[in-house]
Amino acid sequence: MDIYERKLMLVDDNQELLEMIADILRHSGYKNIVKAKCVQEALTVFQMEKPDMAVLDVMLPDGDGFQLFQKLRENSEIPILFLSARDEDRDRLFGLGLGADDYITKPFLPPELVLRVTAILKRTYRMEKEKTQEEHILRLGSHEVLFDYGIVRFQGNETSLTAKELALLLKLHENRGRIVTFDALCNAAWGDGYYGYENTLMVHIRHLREKIEEDPSHPQWLLTVRGLGYRLAEGKGEKP
């Protein structure tokens, strides 16, 4: 998702200022904006709209932005920026100490607000994207398995996985370090009607080892647990 499609929640009890901030952000490309004027309204809007970022005033009629921040943090890790007329160092440090992503004092320059909001969104959701991508890559020594593409990379070469090999490896990866029984693996590859596929499973495991092991005859990663099933080692050289 492009950062300009992210939903922003603005919270300020000054209606005129609230509209001004919304206009500044809209003119910079942010179209998805929701607003609230107090803590209780903000909590309701948050639950209904599920924003991707919040810009909070500190002084609110039914509490303060610090309290609102803590309530939001009970259910979400969205980035939060404080925008406040309270410019004392202790308030700024307190807000940042709570875990806020930034703190801007009023009056502020509109371009500065836009730059800070944009920087926070880029940083937060780039990291989220990288984390998601990282979770879909399995590294086994010099081999890399790219689950999204169904391929194995090794020394600059790419080898495709079959659908069954991919299903088996995903199951092993989800339970990495633990034994996955023959039945569980067969079920992952062939579904409920897997009975009779035990010998075929062994063939697929052999082919899989040829693609992910440096020496398939002496596997270091896809280990056999005799009489039970297989296990994907967490580190090279582990014993079954």
Keywords:
240 residues, alpha/beta, Rossmann fold, Arc Repressor Mutant, subunit A, 2 domains, 5-stranded parallel beta sheet, 8 helices, two-component regulatory system
Give a topology summary:
Layout: E1 8-11, H1 15-27, E2 33-36, H2 39-49, E3 53-56, E4 59-60, E5 63-64, H3 65-73, E6 80-84, H4 89-98, E7 102-105, H5 110-135, E8 137-140, E9 143-146, E10 151-154, E11 157-160, H6 163-174, E12 179-181, H7 182-190, H8 198-212, E13 222-225, E14 229-232
Parallel strand pairs: 1-2, 1-3, 3-6, 6-7
Antiparallel strand pairs: 4-5, 8-9, 9-10, 10-11, 12-14, 13-14
Number of domains: 2
The number of helices is 8
Q: Helix content range of the residues, please?
A: 40-55%
Could you tell me how far the N terminus lies from the C terminus, measured between alpha carbons in angstroms? 43 Å
Unreliable stretches (pLDDT < 50, length at least 5) are none
Order of helices and strands: EHEHEEEHEHEHEEEEHEHHEE
Largest sheet: 5 strands, parallel
CATH topology annotation of the largest domain: Rossmann fold
The CATH homologous superfamily of the largest domain corresponds to: Response regulator
The CATH C-level name of the largest domain is Alpha Beta
Overall strand count: 14
Q: Mean of the pLDDT scores?
A: 89
| Radius of gyration of CA atoms, rounded to a whole number | 26 Å
The coarse overall form would be: elongated
Structural class: alpha/beta
Strands of the largest sheet, in order across it? Answer: 2-1-3-6-7
Tell me the β content.
15-25%
The CATH architecture category of the largest domain equals 3-Layer(aba) Sandwich
InterPro entries: CheY-like_superfamily, OmpR/PhoB-type_DNA-bd, Sig_transdc_resp-reg_C-effctor, Sig_transdc_resp-reg_receiver, WalR-like, WH-like_DNA-bd_sf
Protein name: Stage 0 sporulation protein A homolog
DNA-binding region: 135-234
Domain OmpR/PhoB-type: 135-234
